[in-house]
């Protein structure tokens, strides 16, 4: 047996090898935990705990007070504009997409996407709604027109995910929803 082979097979090297492997496992675990901690704090992360549907307290804590105010205002607007028409339903879209609150009668009206410090609204524009959008193209903000233009059209329509960052965004989203389905007060 060569000198090198003897050293590599000695009990001290075996112990050292297992210690190195153990240290690597510890470092990987710490890296994963740090990644999970950092990941849970990124703006836009979704509520993804499948074990229970989110309630208003959880949504409020996750979004923060300013964004949660938009959530409350938008839900109130939907209830006032379409009284008794839609039954909001929490749906779970998997670990990546998390929980969302869908408003639907027979077809989906909109889906609210609560996220960490962010609220977005998903509105699907079918063929008729796209024609209405195009007819009013120059009345929308440049940001919404850009989003519309960059969103791929599927057979069932364009799936616009609009972030609500201000009262102006809120107003534009309610205009978009009113275009999709006229409010009962105006119908």
UniProtKB/TrEMBL annotation:
Pfam families: DUF3788
Domain of life: Bacteria
Descriptive protein name: DUF3788 domain-containing protein
Source organism (scientific name): Caballeronia novacaledonica
Taxon lineage: Bacteria, Pseudomonadati, Pseudomonadota, Betaproteobacteria, Burkholderiales
